[in-house]
Amino acid sequence: MGPNGGLWLSTTGEPFFGEDGEFVGYRGVGRDVSREIELSSTTDSFKAIFDQLNEAIALWDAKDRFIIGNLASHSLHEGVETFLKPGLPFEKYIREDFANGLFPDAIGNEDA
C-alpha cells in the first residue's frame, strides 16, 4: 500500500491504433510497486539515521563479507569508498587498507 492506503503503480505502454489508423488505446503492462517504494523509503531513512552516528559502525555477514557501514566508519580509512562495496570480503578490505599505507606497523607481517 502506498501513502493513505493507495497503491504505487509502474506502467509502460505503447499507443495502439486500429486498422483505420485511429487511436484505440495503449497496450502495455502495469504492476504494483508499493512494496518496493516502501522498502526504499525505509532503507533511505535507516541510512540517514545510521550516517548521523558519531561511532564508526560497519556490518559484515557470517562469511565476512561487507554489508554496510556508516559515514564515520568510512572516514577512518581514507579512500575506502573506492573499493568498499557490499559483498567485499573482510580480508580484501584489510589488504586494501594495508596497500594504502593505513597499517605501517604491519609492514613485513602482511600475512600474519
What can you see in these coordinates?
The protein is α+β, with helices and mostly antiparallel strands and 112 residues long. It folds into two domains: 1-52, no CATH class; 54-112, no CATH class. Helices cover 30% and strands 23% of the residues. The protein is built from three helices and four strands. The chain has helices at residues 34-52, 71-75, 90-99; strands at residues 9-17, 23-32, 58-60, 66-69. Strands 1-2 form a two-stranded antiparallel ribbon. A two-stranded antiparallel ribbon has the order 3-4. A hairpin with a 5-residue loop joins strand 1 (9-17) and strand 2. The longest helix has 19 residues, at 34-52. The mean pLDDT is 84.
Alpha-carbon distance between the two ends:
53 Å
Strand content: 15-25%
Name the strands of the widest sheet in spatial order.
1-2
What is the H/E order? EEHEEHH
Write down the Rg: 24 Å
Please, what is the average pLDDT?
84
**Largest sheet features:** 2 strands, antiparallel
Shape: elongated
Residue stretches low in confidence (pLDDT < 50, at least 5 long) are none
Number of domains: 2
Number of helices: 3
Keywords for this entry:
112 residues; alpha+beta; 2 domains; two-stranded antiparallel ribbon; 3 helices; 4 strands; 30% helix; 23% strand; elongated
Question: Which SSEs are present, and which pair or pack?
Answer:
Elements lengths: L8 E9 L5 E10 L1 H19 L5 E3 L5 E4 L1 H5 L14 H10 L13
Antiparallel strand pairs: 1-2, 3-4
Provide a concise account of the structure shown.
Helices cover 30% and strands 23% of the residues.
